[in-house]
Design brief:
Layout: E1 3-5, E2 10-16, E3 19-24, E4 30-38, E5 47-52, E6 58-64, H1 70-83, E7 89-98, E8 101-108, E9 111-117, H2 120-123, E10 124-126, E11 132-135, E12 141-144, H3 152-158
Parallel strand pairs: 1-6
Antiparallel strand pairs: 2-3, 3-4, 4-5, 5-6, 7-8, 8-9, 10-11, 11-12
């Protein structure tokens, strides 16, 4: 049976990065190293957040993070932001190809990064609104908010791959 959390009936504390510890007030149960996951990552925002063990067992679902005590809400929001963080590429610095592996160096809102793409057809997804999603060889994700706003050099590097 899944526990639905509808209000301030839990205390959430930081554990490590994306992990949190949860104490249920009504049962006095404590769970450590739970991972908050959005059940609807694209559309759900901070509603319907599953609390998962490292073995993938679902402990509870928070219906709306806004219903939690402020301290617990902040902990959940920070963990979600860390887990779902997608660096946004602002420009490409360099791109080289070696043995059909493309090595990119880019400037992002999180700093300078380098990543590899093995299959540009499967790894670079242009979207209708000008956004471009990129998944590298290690399953890290990056976003270009609008490729049309990139500088000329960056567009020239990217456009042959689209």
């Amino acid at each position: 049976m899944i526990n639905y959390i509808d209000g301030p009936e839990i205390r959430v504390t930081e554990n490590d990065g994306i992990f949190v510890d949860v104490e249920f007030f009504h049962t006095k149960e404590k769970f450590v190293s739970l991972e908050p996951h959005r059940l609807f990552p694209r559309s759900g925002g901070n509603k319907y957040i599953a609390l998962m063990t490292q073995d993938g067992e679902q402990i509870a679902i928070i219906r709306d993070v806004a219903s939690l005590h402020e301290d617990s809400r902040k902990v959940i929001e920070n963990a979600l932001n860390e887990y779902y963080m997608i660096p946004r590429i602002t420009r490409f610095i360099k791109m080289t190809e070696k043995f059909q592996i493309w090595i990119w160096t880019a400037e992002t809102d999180q700093g300078i990064i380098s990543f590899e793409i093995r299959n540009h057809i499967a790894s670079i997804k242009p979207l209708y609104d000008g956004r471009v999603l990129i998944k590298d060889g290690n399953d890290n994700r990056y976003e270009i908010p609008d490729y049309r706003k990139l500088d000329k050099k960056s567009r020239k590097m990217l456009l042959p791959k689209l």
